[in-house]
Amino acid sequence: KEILEKYHDRLRLQWEGVIGHMHVPSQAEWEQLLTNCSAFLFYGMERFMSHILLNRLAAMNMPKCHLMILLDLTRSKQSYQRITNSDIHKSCLHIGIERPTETAMLLSLTGVRSIIANQWYTTLQENAERLEILSESLLSIGRTTGQTVHILQK
Q1: For residue 104, which phi and psi values (nearest 5 degrees)?
Q2: Is residue 39, in this structure, part of any structural domain at all?
Q3: Contact present, 55 and 82 (Cβ < 8 Å)
Q4: CA of 85: how far to CAs of 79, 81, 90, 111, in Å?
Q5: Which of 45, 46, 122, 138 lies closest to 90 in space, CA to CA?
Q6: Ramachandran area for residue 12 (φ above 0: left; ψ -120 to 50: alpha; else beta)
Q7: Residues with Cβ within 8 Å of residue 54, at least 6 apart in sequence
Q8: Looking at residue 12, what is its pLDDT?
Q9: Is residue 154 a part of any domain in this protein?
Q10: Which residues of the chain have pLDDT under 70?
Q11: pLDDT of the residue at 11
C-alpha cells in the first residue's frame, strides 16, 4: 500500500487490483485484471500459478501486458498447508508447469512482453526489498526493465 501511495500521484497511473487481505480474487477477477493491464504486479505467497486456473490462463490473450512482475515464492505455515492441499489434486505435470521457468514461458505465449520473476523461494522481507528497488528504479528514476533487473542481480 505504501508503494502504491508513494507513486500514484506522481505518475497519475491507474492502479487496479486486490491489495492485502481484502478478499481472495475469483477466477473472473484474475482474468479481468490480467487481460486489461499494461503492467501486472503479483506480490504474494507460494507460486503465482497456484492462484489461477491453468487451463483458463493458457487460453488467455494478454498483448496489452508489457510487464509482469511476480514477487511470489514466499511461504508461511498457512500458505504451505493451502498449497499442499491444492497440489494433492494436481498431476505432477500440472505442478511442473507452475514452476518459475514454465510460468514465464506460458505467460510469454499469452502475450506478456516482459516478465520479472523469482527463480526460487525467498522471504517476505527480501520480496519487500525487491519491490522497493523495482518501484524506485522503474517508476521514479525511469530505468529500463533490463537495467532494473541488473540492479536486482547485484
Answers
A1: -60, -40
A2: yes
A3: no
A4: 10, 6, 10, 31
A5: 46
A6: left
A7: 94, 97, 98
A8: 59
A9: no
A10: 8-13
A11: 58
Structural domain range at position 67:
1-149
Residue 63 lies in a domain: yes
Identity of the residue numbered 53: L
C-alpha cell at 76: 508461511
pLDDT (tens digit, 9 = 90+) per residue, 58-95? Answer: 999 999 999 999 999 999 999 999 999 999 999 999 99
Between CA 61 and CA 48 the distance in angstroms is 18
Query: Is 113 a member of any domain?
Result: yes
pLDDT at 13: 64
Q: How many domains does the chain have?
A: 1
Alpha carbon distance 133, 60 (integer Å): 30
Element (H, E) at 71: strand 67-74
Q: Which residue has the cell 492485502?
A: 20
- The length of the chain in residues reads 154
